[in-house]
Amino acid sequence: MTAIVTGGSGGIGSAAAIELASRGFGVIVNYHKDKAGADETVRKINAAGGSAKAVGADISNTDDVKNLISHAEDFSYPTVLVNNAGISYIGLLQDMSEEDIRRQIEVNLLGAILCSKEISEFMIKRKAGSIVNVASVWGETGASCEAVYSACKAGIIGFTKALAKELGPSGIRVNCVSPGVIDTKMNDELDEEAMADLKDSTPLLRIGRPEEVAKAIGFLASSESSFITGVNLSVNGGFFI
């Protein structure tokens, strides 16, 4: 069994790769620029007795995606895809350049679509597979100063529900998780006051950990959720706006 995790060099992606490896998957850890982070994730997996390999790819590029998916055969047939890769932009829409907007869409939405399209061809042949997309609480509620990011993540949720209907007859499940405020580098741009406000808006009164999101991903990827598809699982500590 092989799992591919995009954006696996740190944060939720790294935690998901480690979680899936602990469940017996050979893991392809994808990265774009942070090779050192991906290599560290692979090191941790291999040190724990698992199997993993780091593969660089820009998931918004079709040729890169095809190459990434092909590496699944290094372990066995592709069983799981976790579309986790994402980038953030915090600022007013009016201050975003067209290039900024396009890049947000390419990485946060198009990348998941391209990876799902490519891997589904392998999964359909075997009549089995699980795709887990990583959306966001902002895809559910919207976030001021993250308008395009929010739109992309809302798109991920809609994409998940639609693709689940398309691939269900082939025995392939498609689900997503929507993390709340999680302790990752993506939130480094926020100051202490902003993080404190977000913490206070979370009923559990704390920031989530990448490993907690990874557990949800592992559940949706595995046979434990064999009759679950088209679901958006909110992992957000009860966060609301």
Q: How would you describe the overall organization of this protein?
A:
The protein has one domain: Rossmann fold. It has helices at residues 11-22, 35-47, 62-70, 98-126, 137-141, 147-167, 192-200, 210-221, and strands spanning 2-5, 26-31, 51-56, 78-83, 129-134, 172-179, 232-235. It is globular. Helix 1 (11-22) packs parallel to helix 2 (35-47) and helix 3 packs parallel to helix 4 (98-126). The protein is an alpha/beta fold. It has a seven-stranded parallel sheet with strand order 3-2-1-4-5-6-7, with helices on both faces. It has eight helices and seven strands; from the N terminus they run βαβαβαβαβααβααβ.
Could you tell me how far the N terminus lies from the C terminus, measured between alpha carbons in angstroms? 40 Å
The strand order across the widest sheet is 3-2-1-4-5-6-7
Based on secondary structure, the structural category is alpha/beta
Total strands: the figure is 7
Overall mean pLDDT score? Answer: 94
The protein's oligomeric status is single chain
User: What is the level-2 CATH architecture name?
Assistant: 3-Layer(aba) Sandwich
* H/E element sequence: EHEHEHEHEHHEHHE
CATH level 1 name: Alpha Beta
Morphology = globular
Percent helix range: 40-55%
Q: Residue ranges: pLDDT <50 for 5 or more in a row?
A: none
Q: Rg, please?
A: 17 Å
The number of distinct helices, counting runs of at least 4 residues, comes to: 8
Instruction: From the 3D structure, determine the CATH topology.
Output: Rossmann fold
The major β-sheet equals: 7 strands, parallel
